[in-house]
Specification:
alpha/beta; 14 strands; 6-stranded parallel sheet; 500 residues; single chain
Length: 500
């Protein structure tokens, strides 16, 4: 009688997402968990916001636990008399110097992670602002030409923000055979701390471009503080690339980003995003008196909404009566969204919809989909629109061009007039609109289905949690969309034919 093989435990680590929030990235995580039933998952999301009390998705039977942890909620500040925390000071010194000298950063970050295992705040009694200023003063001549001046006030602000971010090092992870971290600086800090404490393999999915991303609230910060945060995020990303066993970017755009920021080419396995075709069936265009445009997004300050509304003003001036449907506006961003609409004077021409629980209804209200993403958005919404068989006008940001291909219309960013002209052209051209919709559906079915995502990630999980198979009966994992490389494809990952 055959014994049942042990079930590998995977810790799926996100930044404020699945299973507690419904968005495109959470939907991708859900597909992975529900498709890989042979693995047991512990779900942990790390966020700097108030965590939800209950999951937003029903949990399948292969989920052992689901927890949301808020960074900084219980800082547990220690006031020990006579505690100079020399270890913390030394590690922080290396970390601050590492913002300017890459070789020092990982050592300093690892030192703080080791301290965080024993005390809630590894930076207790550490003058982080002073250390930042010392690092800035010691910058080399090349850095001096590009670095904004860091004064006392800016150093204190930057130190406060860094201390809050580094609170993620104190978040513990459940015992597992593999940690799968899905994008973002905050969960990556937690993943790195877990990696250093336990030695568990790390798989990193690059869903966003974390280094360049600047949150909208940070526009109010001084150039010096923004420079500190930008360098910190870049250094965390480089450290993550160095520590990960495998890195799985979603596109050639993300692949190239990882290479430019220090990822080893032989660790990269490009796995494009995918959706379930049955959830996005092709439906007839709405039989309405006026044409309709659909845009899917959260409606937040960095969601692409401002550029969209600027273009739609021109669309409405050309085709009076056109309606814009904003699908997926979250409750947290409804006020911001309404304020932006009021500023444009578009009034009832714009209609807000919460994210439909049933994806069948997401794009059915429109004749054309305008894909205007935020600067760091992954291509999930674009793939959904393509799978729905709707003609798409996309803005050439991030991986949009390689995802859409010739199955839609692509326009340059920061040009509302060009975007408006493309939308109007498709609204007027019924035949071309339908041809592009059919082409988009075909391209999505060919390259971007979730069964392929699940199959490849199952192989990646097996590769990292078990011994490598014998090379005699193996071949390199081949993807439909090849990943660009800076060196010959000496791939780390080899799979048996039977596994595919």
């Amino acid at each position: 009688m055959k014994s049942t093989p042990s079930q590998e435990h995977v810790c799926l680590l996100t930044g404020g997402g699945y299973p507690f929030r419904r968005d495109a990235l959470s939907g991708w995580c859900r597909t992975l968990v529900e498709g890989l039933r042979r693995f047991r998952f512990d779900l942990r999301t790390v966020t700097d916001r108030e965590p939800p009390s209950v999951p937003a998705y029903p949990l399948p039977f292969n989920v052992g636990s689901a927890d949301a942890v808020q960074v900084g909620r219980n800082p547990g500040r220690e006031r020990r008399r006579g505690d100079s925390n020399e270890s913390g000071r030394g590690a922080a010194h290396l970390l601050c110097r590492g913002l300017l000298e890459e070789s020092r950063f990982a050592t300093g970050l690892r030192g703080l992670a080791e301290i965080a295992a024993d005390r809630p705040d590894p930076l207790t009694n550490v003058p982080l602002a002073d250390l930042l200023m010392d690092a800035w003063r010691g910058a080399g001549s090349a850095d001096e030409l590009t670095l904004p001046r860091l004064g006392t006030r800016d150093a204190r602000t930057a130190a406060t923000l860094l201390k809050h971010a580094l609170g993620a090092l104190a978040v513990s992870l459940p015992e597992s055979d593999l940690v799968h971290c899905v994008g973002g600086t905050t969960p990556l800090l937690t993943a790195l701390a877990g990696r250093w404490r336990t030695g568990v393999p790390l798989l990193l999915t690059e869903a966003r471009a974390p280094v360049a991303r600047q949150r909208p609230a940070e526009e109010r910060l001084s150039p010096a503080v923004r420079a500190v945060l930008r360098r910190f995020r870049a250094a965390v990303a480089r450290t993550g690339y160095a520590e990960a066993g495998l890195i799985a970017p979603l596109s050639a755009y993300h692949h190239g980003w990882a290479l430019r920021h220090g990822a080893a080419a032989n660790k990269l396995v490009q796995v494009p995003a995918g959706v379930d075709p049955s959830e996005y069936p092709v439906t007839a265009e709405p039989n309405t008196e006026h044409p309709a445009v659909v845009w899917a997004g959260s409606g937040g300050p960095d969601s692409g909404l401002t550029a969209l509304l600027a273009a739609f003003e021109q669309v409405k001036a050309t085709l009076p009566g056109t309606v814009l449907h904003l699908v997926g506006v979250t409750a947290a961003h409804e006020d911001h969204c309404a304020e932006q609409i009021e500023r444009t004077g578009l009034g009832r021409a714009v209609r807000m919809h919460p994210l439909p629980a049933d994806p069948h209804d997401r794009y059915t209200v429109g004749h054309v989909v305008a894909h205007v993403p935020g600067p760091a958005d992954p291509p999930y919404r674009l793939i959904e629109a393509m799978m729905s068989g709707r003609a798409v006008v996309g803005v050439d940001v991030g991986p949009a061009a390689e995802t859409l291909g010739d199955a839609g219309v692509l326009v340059q960013p920061d040009d509302p007039a060009e975007l408006a002209i493309a939308i109007v052209g498709l609204l007027r051209g019924v035949n071309r609109r339908r041809q592009l919709g059919d082409a988009a559906r075909h391209r999505a079915l060919t390259h971007f289905t979730n069964d392929r995502v699940v199959r490849v990630y199952g192989a990646l999980y097996a590769d990292l949690t078990g011994p490598p198979p014998a090379p005699a009966s193996a071949f390199e994992l081949a993807l439909t969309i090849p990943a660009p490389r800076t060196s010959p494809p000496a791939s780390l990952l080899w799979l048996n034919r039977e596994e595919l």
